[in-house]
Each structure stands twice: as structure tokens, then as C-alpha cells.
């Protein structure tokens, strides 16, 4: 004998017949906390009322089941309504699965994993990402360049078009899972029926099987080939920068989406420039006389020669800044500066005439200097210079 169904689901939940889904969920949450067997110590009457409240919630939260209930009454949930539609019986209080119960409490899926009805096939697995590196000259990193990169990666099989099936054939629906990619197992618990889903072992979650594999890719839907790509390197990149090329990585098996290709940039050092952010730094060696008397020099830069005026009396450590001669800002306007650092070189290996002139200069300026070296000691020291 079948158990009598509650007559008014709206009254059970304490909501109006025009209640929204959120209002129904809030009402059920409140009642479920009060009536749950864990909270009542397993009282039979309360447990039965908890089942009725849950059945009411499961019916009214689903638009189609709610429509049938409004038309045909509570019998519609048992499949005996005038329309001949089917629904869960009174014992099937968790027809939507425990995920719906936890969704009512937490607003998300069950913490115990996939429960409930059909979730659909897993589908083809996406390809992984790939990484390679390319070397740039210092100038290419500053001004940008187009570089060709070559790598061996899985690509879509041209023979089968990625399906994995031999030409003239096609994959068929997996008979073990009926194309869902999942095997559902049902077990009873004190809270009702629990449905768990696992990946189908026959089709490995694809929902399809291949009876006649492609001879070139052996059913994989992809094969490894060497490919060449042109990489547009933007101006201003630095050593260690990584460029992401979406969809240019390894193709996924059986038509799965391709992964991404990451290109890591290696920049060769410059013979006389170093980079500090978007600025370039260049060391300029001046002789003592150039620093003291001043000079006009042709300074080599990445943009060509620039005339640099060295004022008389320039000291070592002084810097000159050439605006806009540095590194372009990546994906933005403007460039950094070129900073010239002065180093004054002290002369060595002076000839006797040069030494005499310097001594005369020191005497004119009233500067004390070491006495001249002579004899055997001077010749020995000169030999080791």
C-alpha cells in the first residue's frame, strides 16, 4: 500500500503559491534545520515530516515539476497525473540527489562529489601547455622583432580531422554509459537515495568509442609534427619575459581544445649598455685632460651617434641624461632615457716628457707630488708595469 502524499506543498513550506524560487529555498532551509534527523535525535514523526518537507521542496524548486503539481496536485509527482508524466515517488525524496540538499543549505554542490542525475559526457580532454625559449639580441628586445620559433608538438591529425576514426567511419555512442561518459551507481541511505557518478571505464569519459581507429594517429586524433610559428615580439621586452600564444600549444586528443604556447625570451647582453627598467646606462671613459678641459664627443647610441658636450672640469661620477633614448614602454607610449656615467681615467705609463709636463702643471698649481723615481728602482718598477 502506497503512503499518502501531503496535500499542500506550499502550506508545508509556509509559502504563498506565487512564491519565488529564492523564497522557497529560504523556507526549506529554515524547516530542514529544525526537522533534520541529526537535530531531532531520530524522532520518527519528525523524520517523516522532514521527508514531506523535502519532497515539497524538490517538487516546487523545479519549474516543470511545479507546473505539473499546480495542474494535477500531489499525485503528479508519483507519475499518476492526468498528463501521464512521471516524477519521483514518495520514497524518492531526494530525487534531485544530495547535491540539491546541500545546495539548499550552502548555495553550491554537495561536498561529497557528484550526485544526482545525468551530468553529460566529460568530452575530449584539452591539450596541455608547452614552453620553449627564443634568443634575442639586445636591439631586438628594445625595438621589437618578428622571430620564428620551431617545435615538435601534437597537432590535429589531418587524416581523420581529429575524430580518431578511420576515414569513412565515425565514433559511435558508448553502450556502457549511453554517451554520458559516466557510470551512475545508486545506493540507499537513511536520508534517501544517493546517486554517485564515476568516469566510464570503457570510453574513458568521452561518451563515444572508436571501432575503426585512424591508421595515422591510431585513434588519438592527433600526431606529433614539427611546426614553425612567427612570434611578434613587442618593443621593450626584457630578459626572462614570457609571451603567451593562446591555442598554439599541443592539440587535445580526439578533437580536444589545444593548449597554449609560452615563449620565454632570452636577451643577449650588450657590449657597453646595461638596462635599468626602461632606462639604458652607458659608461663613458674620459681622459684626465678631456675631463679638465672639456670636449665634444660623438656618443654611440642604439639610435645612432649623438653629440655630447663635456663641460670643462667634469668630475668622475657625473651623469648626463639623454631624454627618450632608452627602452620603449611595453604596450604604451614613450621611452626611457639614456644615462651616461662618466669615469675619469688616470693616465699610466707616462713618457718622461709627459711626466715632466705634469710636474710643471703641479708646480704651477702649488700641488705637492711624489718626487721622480730614478736609477735601478725606477727601471725595475717600469719593467713590471
The portion of residues assigned to helices is 10-25%
Count of β-strands:
15
Give the integer mean of the pLDDT values: 82
What general outline do the C-alpha atoms trace?
Answer: elongated
CATH class of the largest domain: Mainly Beta
CATH topology name of the largest domain, in short, is Chaperone, DNAj Protein, Chain A
* Tally of separate helices: 10
* Strand order of the biggest β-sheet: 10-11-15-14
Low-confidence stretches: 79-121
Query: What's the gyration radius in Å?
Result: 41 Å
Q: Kindly estimate the percentage of residues that lie in beta strands according to DSSP.
A: 25-35%
Characterize the biggest β-sheet: 4 strands, mixed
CATH evolutionary superfamily of the largest domain = Heat shock protein DnaJ, cysteine-rich domain
The CA-CA distance between the termini, in Å, is: 116 Å
Which structural class should the secondary elements be placed in? alpha+beta
What does this structure look like?
It is a single chain. With 385 residues, the protein is α+β, with helices and mostly antiparallel strands. It folds into four domains: 9-106, Helix Hairpins (Orthogonal Bundle), CATH 1.10.287.110; 130-267, Chaperone, DNAj Protein, Chain A, CATH 2.10.230.10; 278-345, Urease metallochaperone UreE, N-terminal domain (HSP40/DNAj peptide-binding domain, Sandwich); 352-383, no CATH class. 25% of the residues lie in helices and 26% in strands. It has ten helices and 15 strands. Strands 10-11-15-14 form a four-stranded mixed sheet. Helix 2 (21-35) packs antiparallel against helix 4. It is elongated, with a radius of gyration of 41 Å.
